[in-house]
Amino acid sequence: MAHKKGLGSSRNGRDSNPKMLGVKVFDGQTIKAGTIIVRQRGTRFRPGDGAGIGRDDTIFAKRDGTVAFKTTGARRFISVTE
Fold it and tell me: What's the whole-model pTM score?
């Protein structure tokens, strides 16, 4: 029994689409309600005052204002202040 595949077969060629994760708006920037602040996998950042979290863990602004990042212990929070 030969251990070679037939002609034309390839086991390569699979690749996933980019997910465009990361911080989109940084500390001190002004944003409008509904703007995405961070796209993430898991809760690396958690929502604070004026921010919400989507079902894919995306942090977004609930109101117009200025973005503020805050660290409390091992947790990082993102809030939107007016």
Answer: 0.82
